[in-house]
Amino acid sequence: MKYQFADLIIRSFLFVLTRFSRASRQRFINAITPLILKLASKTKRRAFDNITNAMPHLTAEQADDLVLASYKVIAYGVLECFWLDELEVDIKCDENTLRLLNNPAGVSVATMHMSCYELAPLAINKIVGSVTTLSKLPKFMPSAAAIYQKANISVIDKNAPNSLFHLLGAARQGAAVCLHADHYSKEVDVTFFGRSTKAPSGSAIISAYSKVPLLLCYPVLNDDGKYTVYFETIVDSYVDNNPVAISQAINTIYQRFEAIILKHPTQWYWSYNRWRQ
C-alpha cells in the first residue's frame, strides 16, 4: 500500500510537470539542484572526492563547480526518463558499427550513467526495432516498468529472481542487449583514472555467451537541449569465452569510459561509490 501511495504522489507530480515545457522543467531542476545537494551531503562529498581523485589538477572551487554542473545534468536526465518515448535523439556511429548493431544474431552494448541514462536502449531500439535492458526498478514506483514499455524497451528487473537467467535468455534469442557497465562490481579488475577498482563483466559475457559483437554507447546533452547518442565498436566479432579475454574487453571499455568522461565531465554521474577498498 505504501508503495502504491508513493507511486501516486510521483505520478501526480509528473502530471503537473507535463504542463510545462522541457526548457521550464530544466530551469526547475537547475533551481532545486543546490538544495538537493545540500540535503544529500554524502552524495555531494563522494562526487567531490571522485572528481578530485580523477582530476587532481582541478582546484577545490573548480571541483565544487563540476559537482553542481554534473548533478544538474544528471537530475534533468533522470526527469527526462519519464518522457523517454517523446525524446528525439541524434545518433552518431560509423558504417561498420551500424552494420554490427543490425547483426541478426543480436549485439551486446555497454553504456554509461551519463545525462539521460536510458537513451542508450532508446537509440538502439530506434535503429534495430527492439532492445532488452537490465534495470533496478524502484519498489516505491510500481509503474516504472511502464516507462520502458511505452518506449518499446524490454526491461528485466534486476531485483527480480533469476534476472540474469532471463537476460541471458533474451541474448540467446538474438536480442540487442544494453547494460550499464560503469558502476562498481566485484567481477573484473580494471584500472580507472589511474586507480585499481573492479567492474561488472555482463556486457562482455553476453558477447562471449551469444557470440555477438560488443559495442559501447553513451548519450550527451548538447547546449541546444538536444541529445546525441554515440556508438563505438569494441569487438566486431565476439569476445572469446575465457576470463582473460573478458577482462581485456572490459578494460578496453574502461579506457574509453575514462576518455569520454574527460571530454564530457559534466555529463557523468560522479557520486557512485566507484573506488572501494
Would you kindly provide a written description of the structure presented here, covering whatever features stand out?
The chain is an alpha/beta fold and 277 residues long. Strand 6 (188-192) and strand 7 (195-199) form a beta hairpin. The radius of gyration is 19 Å and the shape is globular. The chain is built from ten helices and nine strands. The chain has helices at residues 2-17, 22-39, 41-54, 60-80, 95-101, 119-128, 144-150, 163-172, 202-210, 243-263, and strands at residues 89-92, 107-111, 132-135, 154-157, 176-180, 188-192, 195-199, 214-221, 227-235. Helix 2 (22-39) crosses helix 4 (60-80) and helix 9 (202-210) crosses helix 10.
Uncertain regions spanning at least 5 consecutive residues: none
Percent of sequence in beta strands: 15-25%
Strand order of the largest sheet: 1-9-8-2-5-3-4
Give the overall shape.
globular
Find the count of extended strands (DSSP E, 2+ residues). 9
End-to-end Cα distance: 39 Å
The helix-and-strand class reads: alpha/beta
Rg from alpha-carbon coordinates: 19 Å
Largest sheet: 7 strands, mixed
| Fraction of residues in helix | 40-55%
- Overall pLDDT level: 91
Helix and strand succession?
A: HHHHEHEHEHEHEEEHEEH
Number of helices: 10
